[in-house]
Amino acid sequence: MMYTAIVKELNDNIEEEAIISINNIDFTTFIAFTPYKIKIGEEYPVDITLFGDILNITESLDKKIEINRMGETFGYIIHGYLFENGKLDIGFIIEDNELFYDYPYLYGKYVTFEVNRIDSEFLIY
């Protein structure tokens, strides 16, 4: 799914690292692909993917939607709502039907899990 992201920061030491904002949610992302030079403060179309294995997924009784970075890594602890169709609401919708294929018992519930990183692919506009 395509989103509009604002680039908030670029890491001078790690060229694949950026802080972007989607729906006023700021997070550090691994830039998996960009066909052009990106600039701080500019808006770009992006595709977001949760990269790596879903770790320690459980139903969350907190009923919250947020993402929390794990230290200085690209990893995140994610709290979201998993819809019946496998889409995940984390303040914006992650559409990856295969990602939650093994967890149909969590559909329609709030979930918490860890992910290795959040990838961004900057699209041609």
TrEMBL record:
InterPro entries with a match to the protein in the record: UCP019853
What this protein is called in its record is Uncharacterized protein
Native source organism of the sequence: Amedibacillus hominis
